[in-house]
Design brief:
The chain has 295 residues and is α+β, with helices and mostly antiparallel strands. The chain is built from eight helices and seven strands. One of its GO terms (molecular function) is zinc ion binding.
Length: 295
């Protein structure tokens, strides 16, 4: 006979013993077994409010179950006498700092769930008194994605209708290949450098595959092929082939555009000629009337 389920996490699920499945009461999602960690992970990733409620219950239960010893009471008294530090923080500052940890500083997302970090962060979040505002590895991933879309739109608007110079470079690390793409353009007489992406190459590095990868990145930032002024890369055969294919596609696009414009102009000229001819015939066949004005 196993240990009884004493954790409050099980109150959010219905366990089917015959199927060995736990069904979420809120979304009816089924999870294999009834392991507490899996159930907690489900609440954290899909039900932020329920996860906060569960964490509060666990904290309250742990506080009630502990017996205060003489030593602990002395520590509490000492902490009471120690001056506290008051700092000005808000939701945006905390969120931006956590995003910087996993992007600029390169820390893993799991750091946000570490006990040491939670001891610093949880009192701050409790001070904000916003129940719907949670910070963990799952929520920060969503915020990072949202921030990336904002930066992407900012770059797309900034580079609109500007000539750009692309810089390409490939790198291999631990049996994984990547293509780095950045661009340079001029804003207010200053050269600006932006990184468009570090794309993992999952196929054979043919010129065609590299060309498609480059054009997909340009499309993602709404950069038209006619905006390309120069492309700089190393002298790798596949990279040079990809650049030649990009140039050929740009030339074909420009030629097709010119041809389409010529066809439209010719059609317009023919339509104008037909209208002029009809007007002339109508004028010749109509009755004429001369009007004289006396001076």
């Amino acid at each position: 006979m196993g240990r009884p389920s004493v954790s409050t996490i099980h109150s959010y699920f219905i366990f089917n013993k015959s199927l060995n499945e736990s069904a979420c009461k809120n979304c009816e999602c089924k999870i294999k077994g009834k392991h507490g960690t899996n159930l907690k992970r489900h609440l954290a990733s899909h039900h932020d409010e329920l996860h906060e409620e569960y964490m509060s219950k666990e904290l309250e239960k742990n506080n009630c179950s502990k017996k205060v010893t003489k030593k602990e009471s002395q520590v509490k008294l000492f902490n009471f006498l120690v001056p506290k530090v008051n700092v000005q923080l808000n939701k945006k500052i905390i969120l931006d700092a956590c995003i910087d940890l996993v992007t600029v500083n390169g820390r893993p997302f799991t750091m946000l769930n570490d006990t040491g970090f939670r001891k610093i962060l949880d009192p701050v979040l409790n001070g904000l008194q916003e129940k719907k505002f949670t910070i963990n590895s799952y929520s920060i991933k969503r915020h990072v994605h949202a921030e990336s879309l904002l930066i992407q739109d900012e770059i797309a608007n900034e580079v609109q209708s500007k000539l750009i110079s692309l810089k390409l470079d490939g790198v291999t690390r631990l049996n994984r290949a990547f293509l780095g793409i950045n661009m340079q353009y001029i804003v207010d007489d200053c050269i600006k450098l932006r990184t468009l992406g570090l794309v993992e190459l999952t196929e054979s590095h043919t010129g065609t595959y590299l060309k498609e990868t480059i054009l997909n990145i340009l499309k993602k930032f709404k950069i038209e092929q006619k905006q390309l002024y120069t492309i700089t890369s190393d002298n790798g055969a596949n990279m040079l082939k990809a650049i030649n294919l990009v140039e050929e596609e740009i030339s074909a696009t420009v030629a097709a555009t010119i041809e389409l414009n010529n066809e439209l102009n010719n059609d317009s000229i023919e339509d104008t000629a037909d209208v002029s001819s009809e007007c002339s015939e109508s004028y010749d066949s109509s009755d004429r009337q001369d009007i004289f004005f006396k001076s």
